């Protein structure tokens, strides 16, 4: 196995192995997928809808679109082998779906009734529709149209109230929809000390009537 690591500082480290090879379940076209042995979120930017950018933790797509036949599929269901030559290393890497492709995947029931897959696609669509400020004190206007509302309400129905992360997601969906009392009701149930600063920021946004996504400090 040919291991190598990328590092800028000692704590900024991601370990990759040879890419994984997989074939489109529709037409067998070969694709590669990043083979991350370890990563972390140091140096990352985090937003209140759960979206993040972390140099040492790339978002490996669960769903992707075949570059040959256009089929949207869950790559986690595909058998994979580790690439062992430079030739196979150069096959196209699977990419994340854009907003139109996410809508197409949901419309075609690509998730085939699997709750976790539908949640994944709807969360990625939610992220794709959210304007994203890059500075903590900046706000970006969020306009809630019918498509936004439909996706947010579907997500609220799919998520349960057991996990802290899901409570934060539900609080945020409600805040995005302008349902600030509901946002505050959900956020008051988040007790983990780890989330304390984030809870404070979400509460402040709800109390000031701000419905758009915020960047966490
Ligand atoms: Zn294909």
Outline of this structure?
With 217 residues, this protein is of the alpha+beta class. Helix content is 34%, strand content 14%. Mean pLDDT is 91; it is low at 1-9.
What would you say this structure looks like, in words?
It is a single chain. This protein has helices at residues 86-89, 99-107, 115-129, 146-158, 164-176, 180-187, 196-207, and strands spanning 4-7, 13-16, 20-23, 30-33, 36-38, 45-46, 52-53, 63-65, 72-74, 81-82. It has 217 residues and is α+β, with helices and mostly antiparallel strands. It folds into two domains: 1-97, no CATH class; 130-217, no CATH class. A three-stranded antiparallel beta sheet has the order 1-2-5, with no helix packed on it. A three-stranded antiparallel beta sheet has the order 4-3-10, with no helix packed on it. The protein has a two-stranded antiparallel sheet with strand order 6-7. A hairpin with a 5-residue loop joins strand 1 and strand 2. Helix 3 packs antiparallel against helix 4 (146-158), helix 5 (164-176) packs antiparallel against helix 6 and helix 5 runs parallel beside helix 7. Residues 1-9 have low confidence and may be disordered. The structure holds zinc ion (ZN).
